[in-house]
Write a structure and sequence with these properties.
Blueprint: H1 2-27, E1 45-50, H2 62-69, E2 75-81, H3 87-100, E3 104-109, H4 112-125, E4 133-137, H5 139-143, H6 150-168, E5 177-180, E6 184-188, H7 192-203, E7 207-211, E8 226-227, E9 232-233, H8 234-247, E10 251-254, E11 257-265, E12 268-275, H9 283-288, H10 301-305, E13 309-311, E14 320-322, E15 324-325, E16 337-338, H11 348-357, E17 367-373, E18 375-378, E19 382-384, E20 401-403, H12 404-411, E21 432-439, H13 456-470, E22 475-480, H14 490-500, E23 503-506, E24 509-514, E25 521-527, E26 532-538, E27 540-545, E28 547-549, H15 553-560, E29 587-589, H16 599-619, E30 621-624, E31 629-631, H17 641-645, E32 651-656, E33 659-664, H18 674-678, E34 684-686, H19 691-702
Parallel strand pairs: 1-2, 1-3, 3-4, 6-7, 6-18, 7-10, 18-29, 20-27, 21-22, 21-27, 22-23
Antiparallel strand pairs: 5-30, 8-9, 11-12, 12-17, 13-14, 15-16, 19-28, 24-25, 25-26, 31-34, 32-33
Helix pairs in contact: 1-19, 2-6, 3-4, 6-19, 7-8, 7-16, 12-13, 13-14
Length: 707
């Protein structure tokens, strides 16, 4: 079958491919600086086939693949082993390199993302340059998808090995480069994740810039009343952390600020931070202006005289605030902020502040500050899905339909009602409250979010407990699809709420209608356990709205060169092996910006990110893989078209010997190949993915090795 396929392919494609191959090779010879180049005639490649237990061996004929590999041009040695990544397996590779004087190694096994570093190390320890190694993925791309096609899987493995050998025969020695690392870090976002990461970096003795877009730190957690399953007061456990951040000697707090621009690479990021005009001076700023003992002390005299009243975003619009304000009494830093979009500049606050403090500056402007950091952590948090898009539930049409975040503020002692849960329509205490779970989550209609928001079930159980505790005789009705109580002591908390008297109805709510006279709500659903429709009359409905990425997440990720998932969450380098890292070296993720997490998982991820971000800083330098572009200057026309194409801003035009040529900032280059694939003159050589190597792989596949 394989021979038939090769013959057919050769007949139909050889006339097309061969001329292209010759032309490309003619244009893209290796740059003069390349060292350790092996010609195809000198190549001696070792092929090592892994069984991966039965992951691979259970779906293909390993002996047949091994025998075929012996016939591939330039192959000098072939072996197989049950677990090639094990120490004995690596010993097989090392011994073969020494005994057979191999110039290159091909391991046919799993994904390079898992074990390429393992096999590179084995190659290096045997005395061979580690970049003379190539991997053929015959597990994820073969056996796992062809487990019921023995013959097809075997043939595909042969093709994969032949293609890998063709490239390995042309690989050259490459040498990693090291760059120094600035002994400072930046954390973007000062919710519980950002604060924890900053505190850990501070404890490690690292200068840390903590950038927060709002006037104070604390994030979403500062809006909560209690936390599940322990029912600790949120502010009681959060405020000490906020105070620690404010006092930490290594943390420079940059509130009411945002990242405006990012340049550089791991170890040497140049970040421009825009400090928004606050209109109020801190004591340090006042002292810098020569005002001894001046600056804001949080007394609130200015707020008392301000005539402008606006909805309070911190209270989800359920309470007013002034044009000069603080979110709550425990804010850090305890400095007032002027909302210049609302301020009428009447000057009453200036008069109230007094001539001693002189803390008010109505003419203040945005400032731009440049800082240099070695690593950065993104902890930008989450936003609430606009659940009014699900029109069937009546949010923003019916006053007594609220979100869980609004419930948190109503039930909180520091909230707009002093902790008394009331109906927004008439201020009455509700006696029957319906909780609608998965409000916008696990929704494949195209309006909501397809993913689970993960912590909604648990905070709805907490809310049910709170109304049972605070309102005698009040009954919570929880409409759910599945209760996902996944964490430590969470399942026990679920049973506790059942025992306390909460009523559970399994079924998605179809729609909610209002009685115009009483303002009561009719919740229509299907009880899937009793197999009957439900029409329940309740006083108040609480929607457990889905969470989604912050509105400016896409802007932030572009600034730092980070990828995102289809749902818009920031994407980690590897979901299991590198959950805190990103595809941009030196940039790490913490908290809910990469997907829904509860508070313990958020704090744990922040500690992991802080640990990962501190490693390059403590080492003092970082080693970069040599997968970067190189300019063959004699072929470069200086057109500059590649400069604008580079997604990492790694290319620039420089003057050399009276003409312009392209220059690569190697530390920025990620080896994506965009410039090399576009260059009309073939002037760009991609290390480890050079044009002759890629063409050799294409030829090996299309011509079946008969080149």
């Amino acid at each position: 079958m394989a021979e038939k396929k090769k013959a057919t392919t050769k007949k139909s494609e050889s006339k097309k491919v061969a001329p292209v191959k010759q032309e490309v090779k003619k244009q893209a010879a290796a740059p003069a600086a390349a060292v350790g180049q092996t010609t195809k005639q000198d190549a001696r490649i070792g092929v090592f086939i892994c069984h991966c237990g039965t992951n691979i061996a259970g779906s293909m004929d390993i002996p047949a693949v091994q025998e075929y590999a012996k016939t591939v041009p330039n192959v000098a040695f072939v072996d197989n082993y049950k677990y090639m990544c094990s120490m004995p397996g690596q010993a097989v590779i090392s011994k073969a390199i020494k005994d057979n004087k191999l110039t290159g190694v091909v391991v046919a096994a799993c994904s390079p993302r898992l074990h390429e570093p393992t096999f590179r190390t084995a190659t290096k320890e045997a005395g061979l340059n580690p970049f003379r190694f190539e991997m053929a993925n015959i597990r994820e791309q073969n056996s796992w998808v062809h487990m019921h096609d023995w013959e097809g899987s075997t043939d595909k493995a042969k093709d994969a090995i032949r293609i890998a050998v063709a490239k390995a025969a042309l690989l050259q020695d490459l040498f990693p480069k090291s760059v120094p690392v600035e002994k400072a870090a930046m954390v973007v976002g000062a919710g519980v994740a950002g604060m924890q990461a900053a505190l850990d970096l501070d404890a490690a003795g690292i200068k840390t810039y903590l950038v927060e877009s709002t006037p104070s730190i604390g994030g979403r957690m500062s809006q909560l009343d209690k936390t599940f399953p322990t029912l600790d007061c949120s502010q009681c456990i959060l405020t000490p952390k906020m105070v620690d951040v404010g006092r930490a000697k290594n943390i420079e707090l940059m509130t009411y600020s945002e990242v405006d621009a990012v340049e550089g690479y791991i170890g040497n990021f140049d970040v421009t931070v825009r400090k928004k005009a606050r209109g109020v001076l801190t004591p340090a700023e006042a002292e810098a202006r020569g005002i001894v003992g001046g600056g804001c002390n949080g007394c609130g005299d200015c707020e008392a005289v301000c005539p402008v009243v606006k909805p309070n975003d911190f209270e989800v619009g359920m309470k007013p605030r002034k044009a000069i304000y603080i979110n709550h009494p425990q804010v850090v830093p305890l400095i007032y902020t002027i909302d210049f979009n609302s301020c009428i500049k009447c000057g009453l606050c200036v008069t109230a502040c007094g001539p001693e403090k002189k803390a008010i500056d109505l003419e203040s402007k945005d400032e731009f500050v440049k800082v240099k950091v070695g690593t950065a952590i993104l902890a930008t948090g989450f936003d609430i899905f606009p659940v009014e898009k699900k029109e069937e539930w009546g949010y923003k049409r019916y006053e007594n339909v609220i979100t869980s975040l609004e419930f948190e503020r109503l039930i909180c002692a520091s909230g707009p009602t002093g902790g008394h849960l009331v109906r927004p329509s008439d201020g009455e205490t509700p006696k029957r409250v319906a909780f609608v779970l998965c409000a916008g989550s696990r929704d494949n209609t195209g309006v909501g979010k397809p993913y689970c928001s993960r912590f909604c079930c648990m905070y709805s159980l907490k809310h049910a407990h709170q109304i049972i505790e605070k309102i005698p005789g009040c009954t919570p009705y929880i409409f759910y699809m599945d209760i996902r109580s996944f964490g430590k002591m969470y399942e026990e908390f679920y049973y506790r709420i059942q025992d306390e008297g909460a009523k559970f109805i399994r079924g998605r709510v179809a729609n909610i209608l209002e009685d115009p006279k009483t303002k009561n709500l009719h919740v229509h659903a299907d009880d899937t356990l009793l197999d009957r429709p439900v029409d329940m009359d309740v006083d108040l409905v609480v929607l457990a709205a889905a969470v989604q990425p912050m509105a400016d997440t896409n802007r932030t990720r572009k600034l730092f060169g980070v990828s995102c998932s289809m749902d818009g969450w920031l994407l980690e380098a590897h979901p299991k092996l590198n959950p805190c890292g990103t595809t941009t070296a030196g940039v790490f993720l913490a908290g809910v910006c990469q997907g829904p997490k509860d508070i313990p998982d958020t704090v744990a991820s922040a500690e992991g990110a802080a640990s990962a971000a501190s490693i390059p800083i403590h080492k003092g330098e970082v080693e970069l893989e040599p997968y970067f572009a190189t300019c063959i200057e004699e072929k470069c026309a200086g057109c500059g078209m590649c400069v604008n194409l580079c997604p990492y801003s790694a290319l620039s035009l420089v003057e050399k010997e009276g003409r312009q040529v392209m220059q690569v900032t190697e530390a920025k280059c990620k080896g994506c190949g965009t410039c090399g694939g576009f260059c009309p003159g073939g002037a760009i050589w991609m290390n480890h993915f050079a044009t002759p190597q890629i063409v050799a792989q294409i030829d090996a596949f299309l011509l079946g090795g008969e080149q």
